Amino acid sequence: MKHQMRVHSSGKIRGGMKHVFPAFPRAVGVIAGAMLASVGLELFLMPHGIVVGGMTGLSALLALKTELRLGLFLFLLNLPLLLFHRNNIHWSYGIFTVMGVLVFSLGTLVLHPYPSLIAEPLLAALIGGVALGLGLGLSLRFGGALDIAEKAVNQFRYGRLSPERILLLLNCLILIGAGFHFGFLQALYSIIAYLSAFEAIKLPVQGTRLAQTVHIKSRHCAVIQEELLRYLNRVAVYRQEPTGTGNENGIGILECQCHRLERSRFISVVHQCDRESEITFDPKD
């Protein structure tokens, strides 16, 4: 059964209560996810030359090619992208992401001297991929991130290429690069690890309401549509066309999808267009 939460321009929230993790448990969850992900990388995947996708996979590929430490590339590739997109993310997400990336980087540096826990590459790819995916998903579950490739790519659109296709292309290039550098068999192990991590990410966040349907009642629907697309890459469609003569005089209702971590930013963008607008969040069951 759905409940509604209505946000008015006065800042008051009516209806259901939002479940918010206190800061300390959230920090513990993000740190635990970062440590688990670093174990998957350094004690299973990296000793066998196995890489995955995203900034984590690109960092691993660069570390294996240059023989520099993995933690250095994890830090240098993730944090600049986070700073570049700081205006499009919620401040709490940014804080917990910085914390997670730092622990992730330090964890790989500490574990680097230790050998692989498993000598069989196929088993290492499966277990390492699952451990990495669980760590990434656990950090996401508690409001942070260890790999911000998807978040960064969502801000771009090149021609007919959607952000999802750009991310898929990036991951394919990383896996192809691993194949050219380490051989076909290692590329196969990398694909297995990537798929294992991709599926394992879903486990910690299963049942959580990451996405919500939002209804916006406003006299400036066209402007709100444009600004949401510009700043959040969110497409808002009309659920009810504006009444009266034109969007400026008539009241219409827009429907849009919003990630729960973007909620504050979403409200800010809408209220910059129309302080009198009414925003209703419908959490998905």
Could you explain the architecture of this structure?
The protein has 285 residues and is α+β, with helices and mostly antiparallel strands. It has 2 domains: 183 residues, no CATH class; 75 residues, Alpha-Beta Plaits (2-Layer Sandwich). Helices cover 57% and strands 11% of the residues. Strands 2-1-6-3-5-4 form a 6-stranded antiparallel sheet, with helices on one face. A hairpin with a 5-residue loop joins strand 1 and strand 2. Helix 5 runs parallel beside helix 8. The longest helix has 23 residues. The radius of gyration is 21 Å and the shape is elongated. The protein starts with a strand and ends with a strand.
Q: Which strand order does the major sheet show? A: 2-1-6-3-5-4
Count of folded domains? 2
Report the C-alpha radius of gyration, rounded.
21 Å
Question: What is the average per-residue confidence, as pLDDT, rounded to a whole number?
Answer: 81
The gross shape turns out to be elongated
Helix-residue proportion:
55-70%
Question: What sequence of helices (H) and strands (E) makes up the elements?
Answer: EEHHHHHHHHEHEEHE
Low-confidence parts: 1-21
Query: What is the assembly state of the chains in this entry?
Result: single chain
Beta fraction of the residues?
5-15%
How many DSSP helices?
10
Task: Report how far the terminal alpha carbons are from each other.
Answer: 7 Å
The biggest beta sheet reads: 6 strands, antiparallel
Main location: membrane
Membrane topology: Multi-pass membrane protein
Pfam families: YitT_membrane
Organism: Paenibacillus rhizolycopersici
